[in-house]
Amino acid sequence: MIKKYMAKILVTGGAGFIGSNLVDKLIEQKHKVVVVDNLSSGKKSYLNPKAKFYEVDISSEGLDLVFKLEKFNTVIHLAAQIDVGISVSDPMLDNRANVLGSYRVFRNCTEKKVKKIIYISTGGAIYGDVDKPVGEDAMVQPVSPYAIHKYAAERYLEYYRDLLDINYVVLRLSNVYGPRQHKGGECGVIGNYTYNFVHEAGSILRGDGSKTRDFIYVDDVVRAIISAMGHKGCGIFNISSGRETSILGVIQTIEKVTNKKLAHKNTKDRPGEVKRSVLSNKKAGQELNWQPQTKLEDGIKKTLAWLKAEREKNGNSNKK
Fold first, then answer.
1. CA–CA gap between residue 279 and residue 129 (Å, rounded)
2. Catalytic residue (choose from 54, 146, 193, 217)
3. What are the CA-CA distances from residue 75 to residues 83, 169, 221, 282, 302 (Å)?
4. What are the tens digits of pLDDT across the range 99-153?
5. Structural domains for the chain
6. Cα–Cα distance for residue pair 239/242, rounded to 1 Å
7. CA pair distance 186, 180, nearest whole angstrom
8. Which pLDDT value is given to residue 27?
9. Residue 269 has what DSSP assignment?
10. CB atoms within 10 A of CB 211
11. Is 48 helix (H, G, I), strand (E, B) or coil?
12. Mean of pLDDT values over 39-47
């Protein structure tokens, strides 16, 4: 049972995939929500009309103004540069968003005495290659600038905790998928494959399909974030399914639920990619009273249904 809180909450990246799903749930629970998003990957159409919106980049002085104008009980920091490939080709751009941008968020939180900070980090990219479900105390082995920078932001929070005794939670997410994960950037294999399937386009299988990921449905992530709002003290938690699934396994699941073949061709792996990833969610179960609820097959069915509805809606709009 998730406890409900009446609070004024800032969600950075609230027009994005995870952020917009979270904002909808927070407003449903009667919270006041402010969204900051530069719309580089977020979409205006995903914004909840009951949320107050600032089109601001988190690395800019515009964020300072938002904190001057608004007073928040809780800040949930989701905004990020999320494409691993871009982080490899342009590490400075990734650093500006994921390190300097996060630093500006956290600095404003400390100056304005925000009661709770929830930072959405990455699990698979930070831990690197693993051969079993890893817990939060596992060695950190980032294999890309993206992972390095996300971990650097975690360290800034730790610095502020030691300096100012702030209250924060870090959620290290495994590979999230579901409705509103639009194609492009670091969409992830499920997002890309389901989109291509619905739009009758071919997909790309990088490598031989043996790479594994720990896939978690977006609604489960939203529940975890809301659960973290009630956690007392500081902590780092893996939010994951706890199950290892190969990329070929994803293709097979899509083919199973649709009873059709997924057209795809093989190409080389990209640099900076983790080969095996699976996270233990035991700590989140014990301390946040959270467990994943959506099986991969059911999550893929829901994702396909949303994509089909979007295609029909956009198709009808184009005919007008």
1. 11
2. 146
3. 23, 11, 16, 25, 29
4. 999 999 999 999 999 999 999 999 988 998 888 999 999 999 988 889 999 999 9
5. 8-180+215-242+279-293 (3.40.50.720)
6. 9
7. 13
8. 97
9. P
10. 19
11. coil
12. 93
What's at 194, amino acid-wise?
A: T
Q: Which string of DSSP letters, residue by residue, matches 162-190?
A: HHH---EEEEEE-EEE-TT--SSSS--HH
The pair of three-digit structure tokens given for residue 219, joined into one six-digit string: 């609604």
Go through the chain and tell me how many residues it has: 320
Query: Any long-range contacts for 86-92 (C-beta under 8 Å, 24+ apart)?
Result: 86/185, 87/144, 87/145, 87/146, 87/149, 87/272, 88/144, 88/145, 88/146, 88/270, 88/271, 88/272, 91/145
CB 224 within 8 A of CB 171: yes
Angle at which helices 17-28 and 218-229 cross, to 10°: 60
Nearest alpha-carbon partner for 80 in 49, 53, 107, 41: 41
Number of Cα atoms under 13 Å in the Cβ half of residue 282: 7
User: Distance between the two ends of the chain, CA-based, in angstroms?
Assistant: 45
Residue 254 has pLDDT above 80, yes or no: yes
**Residue reference for tokens 């919106």:** 53
Q: Where are the alpha helices (DSSP H) in the chain?
A: 17-28, 62-69, 84-89, 91-95, 101-111, 124-127, 145-164, 189-198, 218-229, 247-258, 282-287, 296-319
Single-letter residue type at 133: P
Annotated catalytic, 146? yes
Structure confidence at residue 2 (pLDDT): 47
Is the pLDDT at 319 greater than 80, yes or no? no
